[in-house]
Amino acid sequence: MNTFHINPISRNLSSSLQEKINFKTKPLGALGKLEQIAMQIGLVQNSLSPVLTKPVILVFAGDHGITSEGVSAYPQEVTFQMVMNFLSGGAAINVFCKQNGLAIHIVDAGVNHEFPENLTGLVRNKIAPGTKNFMHEPAMSMEQVQEAIQCGAKIVRELHETGSNVIGFGEMGIGNTSSASVLMSVLCKIPLEECVGRGTGLDHDAVSNKIRILKKAIAHHPAPVTPIQTLALFGGFEIAQMCGAMLQAAQLGMIILVDGFIATSAFLVAHEMEPHIRDYAIFCHQSGEHGHRKLLEYLSASGLINLDMRLGEGTGAAVAYPLIKSAVNFLNEMASFESAGVSAKEENNLA
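-> structure tokens emitted (351 positions)
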């Protein structure tokens, strides 16, 4: 298994970056979160003039054995149907990526469908045709979860070699809110009721039944000791591959754009393995999914936007990307008081 060693970002330039931000032609702090993002990206890249190159959204798809317990409003075949929709350019993520100049790659991490050999545009990383039903047995073997992490990491290494330095993470997988909810509950030690939401559109009674089923599933297994054991017990192939991809991206010094609840659950596992990954992540939005706000709070994070979205696919990352570009662009292109010949605020030192 790959071992990831993620260094905390160097803060050698923090004073210089703050001075550059403060002396733009604006009041102190007037660009709010954009200033925080500019600082973060500058520190990650160790540069006063950071750049975003060849941005990519990776959409990982996988099926879940737990769907046989009736935890989703949609049948499992929707996963492969949506993968075909992604590949034909018809999904929301395709629209937003095209609009905002983002490349998109669709990854078959473990879809319960055999895609045609002549199908183009699909990254074929299938570990198995869906996970096992974790009501009765671990979702994945330890060998499978390790393979999945390595597969995700390999995609990121290849993209990095092409010059990409920013990657957004999305997913597709009927049943994956169940996996994400359990991962959150077990790793964060938060009651399951505070983690489980409507997923693909369950009503109140169905949510209550989902909680009952997932509690029973957790109780079936001995308590896992490590984050990777938790991932193997309750995760999905798409979640595991996202986890590996995020760890690799941070190790390579790339910017990680975290989408919604499922992507954040993958990040949670990665964070439990390597806490310094937090320095490299931008949490693009707060999902409308019930547990996401508490999960972000656990990670001491907040979403850049909150539009009550809960689609997944990476759509929150794609919609937020122009704001992230704005943060970099104001840092690089906005005039300073000195260059513009504008008088700075009197008396108080702006630094």
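The chain has one domain: 57-114+123-330.
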